[in-house]
Design brief:
There is one protein chain. This protein is of the alpha/beta class. The chain has three domains: 130 residues, no CATH class; 65 residues, no CATH class; 144 residues, no CATH class. It has 14 helices and five strands. A five-stranded mixed beta sheet has the order 2-3-1-4-5, with helices on both faces. β4, α5 and β5 form a beta-alpha-beta unit. It starts with a strand and ends with a helix.
Length: 368
């Protein structure tokens, strides 16, 4: 007996948005009720026809004696992209946990829904793909109605209205601002920059990645606010340090590459109390201190010694970089640089050995 799953996929979740039906839907009766509710909410949607076609296919397979058949409907997200694919994967796992098929017959109403084929194939073999095409009348009136329908969808669907309304609106706004300030001669340059940025965002799917990273940052902020805050401050310090160091290096580039590198470390002045390298050291220490406090609060301090060793190492490394900067400027000493390198290595190694031995002794005492 072969076990076949008739699977209808609604990638943009029209069934959830329009009919307010939660997926996955498993079983003929539940799918039939969902199809009727969907048809009543939007009888012109092609997804309705595809869902009825899936039920019809299930009934025909059910009549075969050597086939055990089941039908299910899963959906993605109106936002499309990664969010829709992740939701489809989760719902497919839920369906496969309740019904163990040998293969899947995929039913869809277009190319967009068939983009989930690799996701399904990674879980279960696809026996067949049935694409449902709705037959439209060729009359002028019907053609006009279909055109109006798709234009309305273009301006109401969240996936399309960003391009149909947002991008032209941005260009009109930029042109209006340039005209208001008498800079209309730069219109071509401004529109070229906007179009280029838009194509880069869409071409490399940067908008989806930005949305994904935004969710990760939000989750990170909720689960570890202290770690998030210290990391943010550390990044700000790095940016400030780069600005100070690069400014000093550019100002002294006429003296040669070595002198410019030295000024990058010792900016704004070799005789100053604080240098650009101090900003980088502060950045690293803030990041490690945040991880130390997070480890102490969340993990009961089990790995705190690693961060303490790192903080001490960064503190001693500061003097190494200062001596290196002075050496690049031609006023430093190689012996003093080696002296600080040796001291840093010895102190860091001593702390590491001390904490490792301490942890082993604690574990041995705990076992006894």
């Amino acid at each position: 007996m072969r076990r076949i799953l008739v699977l209808y996929v609604d990638r943009d979740d029209d069934i959830g948005v329009k009919a307010k039906i939660k997926t996955p839907i498993i079983g003929r009766e539940d799918n039939l009720k969902a199809a009727l509710s969907f048809a009543l909410s939007d009888p012109e949607d092609s997804d309705v026809n595809a869902l009825f076609a899936a039920i019809q296919l299930f009934d025909s397979l059910k009549k075969q004696r050597d086939v055990i058949c089941e039908i299910a409907t899963i959906s993605g997200s109106p936002n499309g992209g990664i969010e829709a694919d992740l939701r489809i994967r989760e719902q497919l796992d839920e369906v496969l946990n309740r019904f163990k098929p040998d293969g899947v017959v995929l039913v869809s109403d277009g190319v967009d829904d068939e983009q989930v084929v690799p996701i399904i194939q990674s879980k279960i073999p696809i026996v067949s793909v049935r694409r449902v095409v709705v037959v439209q009348s060729r009359g002028v009136e019907e053609t006009y109605m279909v055109l109006v329908k798709y234009l309305k969808k273009l301006y109401e669907d969240p996936r399309y209205k960003k391009v149909a309304l947002g991008f032209p609106g941005l260009m009109i706004l930029v042109l209006s601002l340039l005209a208001a300030f008498n800079y209309l001669e730069y219109a071509t340059l401004a529109l070229g920059i906007i179009l280029g940025l838009f194509m880069i965002l869409k071409g490399f799917s940067l908008d989806e990645k930005i949305a994904l990273y935004h969710k990760r940052l939000e989750t990170w902020w909720r689960s570890a606010p202290l770690l998030f805050f210290t990391t943010f401050i550390s990044i700000v310090c790095i940016i400030v340090g780069l600005y100070v160091g690069i400014s000093g290096a550019i100002a002294s580039r006429t003296y040669g590459l070595s002198y410019a590198l030295g000024m990058f470390i010792l900016s704004p002045d070799p005789n100053a109390v604080l240098h650009s390298i101090d900003i980088f050291v502060a950045s690293a220490m803030i990041a490690l201190l945040g991880r130390l406090l997070h480890s102490w609060l969340i993990s009961s301090g089990e790995t705190y010694w690693q961060y303490i060793t790192g903080i001490v190492f960064i503190m001693f490394s500061r003097q190494i970089f200062l001596e290196l900067g002075l050496l690049l400027l031609g006023i430093g000493s190689l012996i003093i640089l080696l002296y600080w390198v040796i001291i840093t290595v010895i102190v860091s190694a001593f702390l590491t050995v001390f904490f490792v031995i301490r942890e082993r002794l604690k574990k041995s005492l705990h076992k006894k």
